[in-house]
Design a protein that fits this description.
Layout lengths: L1 H18 L7 H13 L1
Helix pairs in contact: 1-2
Length: 40
């Protein structure tokens, strides 16, 4: 489950970066989710 969630987060993060490069201020939120998934 953690691996799946982490992969899903990575995919969403990639899509978000490519679709919204104008909004880098939201990237820390995605990074926090990734760190949380990795630490769990």
């Amino acid at each position: 489950v953690i691996i799946f969630f982490n992969s899903l987060t990575s995919v969403m993060e990639s899509l978000y970066v490519h679709s919204s490069p104008i909004l880098p201020r939201n990237l820390p939120k995605l990074n926090n989710i990734s760190l949380f998934a990795n630490s769990s």
